[in-house]
Amino acid sequence: MKIALCDDDCIELQHVRKVVESYIESSIPHTDITLKAFNLAEELLRDIAQNGSYDLLILDIILPGMNGIELAAEIRKQDTGCKIIFLTSSEDFAISSYKVDAFYYILKPFPDQELELQLHRFFSSLQDNKNAHIIIRDSGQLRRVFFHSILYIESAKHTIFLHLSNGETCSCYGTMNEFAAILSKDGRFVKCHKSFVVNMETVVSISAKGFVLTNKVLIPISRQAYADVKQNFIDYFFGKG
After folding, report:
1. Class (C level, CATH) for 2-130
2. Which range has the top average pLDDT, 40-44, 99-103, 135-139?
3. Are 146 and 132 in contact (CB under 8 A)?
4. How large is the average pLDDT for residues 42-50?
5. Which Pfam families did the record assign (predicted)?
6. Share above pLDDT 90 across residues of the chain, in percent, rounded to a whole number
7. Are 68 and 41 in contact (CB under 8 A)?
8. Percent of the chain scoring above 70 in pLDDT
C-alpha cells in the first residue's frame, strides 16, 4: 500500500502527514504502508515515473506551477485506479475535480476528523470492493465477476453484457431489472438508462449527454432520469451515498 501527499505549504503538509500517520497507527497498525510527502506536483510525477503508482493521493489543489487538478489529470493518463482526495481553501475547483474522478474534496481549514473519516472510507472500500461479486453463467460455465472489474452493464433483449475494465465483455441471460436490483445493493452502481447500469467509480465526467467512463466510452443517461442520476452521482462522489 502506497500513499502520497502533495502540498507546497510545509506546515500544512506536516499536519496532514501527522493525521495520516496517527490514523494508520491507531486504526490499521499492521498494514504495510509506504507514505511519502512532496511539495511540488512535478516531484510527485517524477517519483511515480521512477517508482510506480500510488493507491491513495492526498493533494492540495493550489500549487505553484502545475496545480492539483492538472497533476491528477496527468496521473489519470496512466492510472485510473488510484484514489484521490483533494484539499483546498477554494470551492472553485469542485466541478473540475469530477473530471479526474476524485474520491473526495475537503475544504480547508478542516478538523482532523474530516480527513480521518475519508481515510476510513478509503480503507473500508478496499476490503468491500475487493470481495463483492456476482455469479453468472457465461457460455455454459459459471463465472464469478467482481464488482470492481465492471465498467458498465448493457442489456439487449434478454441478454446482459458485462463490460469489464480489462477490455473483456462477458454475457449471460437475464433482464436489466434483475441485474439492477442486485447491483443496487452496492452503492457504486447506478441505473442511468433502461439499457445501462454504470459503475460510478469508473466515471470521468457527467453531462446531459451521459457518463464518460475511464475507457472514454459515453454511456447515455435518459432525459427523465438525469436529475436523479446526477444527484446520485454527486452524493456518491461526496461520500453521502
Report:
1. alpha beta
2. 40-44
3. yes
4. 94
5. LytTR, Response_reg
6. 55
7. yes
8. 95
| 54 contacts 38 by C-beta, under 8 angstroms | no
**Contact of 183 with 189, CB cutoff 8 Å:** yes
Name the burial class of residue 161, with classes exposed (0-12), middle (13-18) and buried (19+) by CB atoms within 10 angstroms of its CB.
middle
Strands 189-193 and 169-173: unpaired
Query: According to DSSP H, which parts of 35-67 are helical?
Result: 41-51
165 alpha carbon, distance to own chain's centre: 13
The CA angle 166-172-175, to the nearest 5 degrees, is 115
132-237 is classed in which CATH architecture? Beta Barrel (2.40)
Burial 88-104 (b: 16+ CB within 10 A, else e): beeeebbebbbbbbbbb
Q: Other CB atoms closer than 10 Å to residue 145's CB: what's the count?
A: 18
- Rounded Cα–Cα distance for residues 152 and 106 (Å): 28
Closest by CA position to 197, among listed 209, 214, 184, 208: 184
Instruction: Give me the pLDDT at residue 46, please.
Output: 95
What pLDDT score does 116 carry?
93
Domain boundaries, the chain: 2-130, 132-237
pLDDT score at 92:
74
Which amino acid is located at 74 in the chain?
E
Q: What is the pLDDT of residue 80?
A: 76
Fill in the DSSP letter of residue 109.
S
Distance CA 183, CA 17 (A): 36
Task: Give SS3 for 55.
Answer: coil
